[in-house]
Amino acid sequence: MPNPIRLAPDDRVFVLTGAGVSAESGLRTFRDQGGLWEGHRVEDVATPEAWEEDAARVWRFYSQRRRDARTAEPNPAHRALADLEQQLGDRFFLCTQNVDDLHERAGSQRLVHMHGELFMSRCEGNCGRPPFPDLSQYDSEAAMAHCACGGRIRPHIVWFGEMPLEMERIRREIDLCTVMDR
Predict the structure, then answer these.
(1) Is 78 a catalytic site residue?
(2) What are phi and psi of 64, to 5 degrees?
(3) The CA-based dihedral angle spanning residues 97, 98, 102, 105, taken in that order and rounded to the nearest 10 degrees
(4) Which of 58, 100, 110, 175 is exposed most, by the fewest CB atoms within 10 A?
């Protein structure tokens, strides 16, 4: 068993999580054998160009991700990170590449989803509407929602070719941390 990390009373902890932590809850990863990219070209479901070409196909892909994530449960790693946050308070920061809500469901509050959030949507227009909670399943162009400004509602997901979210905040937290783990 590895040695536990020993923290000083003034240490600030930055944790980065990725697909592996959610895989333990039964969510398929993108790159593993049998992963989400099998049967889906990245270019067809996870790029701005895919959205422009066939928004309904992109929504079907993310609607399936939503269905899968709803049945998943936080695992011991999610709960351990939430417990550590509870102990450290403001001295803890979690940055996740995952778009599921398993960290929040385990109790984490001080986190950033740098690749977006599966159960959030946003307007593709320039109206300034902030991302909002959305559990909808969009399986066709006709079913897709539109904003009051007329823009289509898209998943609040960072696609290939887009900038990860909250990079300035992530940089600040990295600069402040004294312990970093992944």
Answers:
(1) no
(2) -65, -40
(3) 60
(4) 175
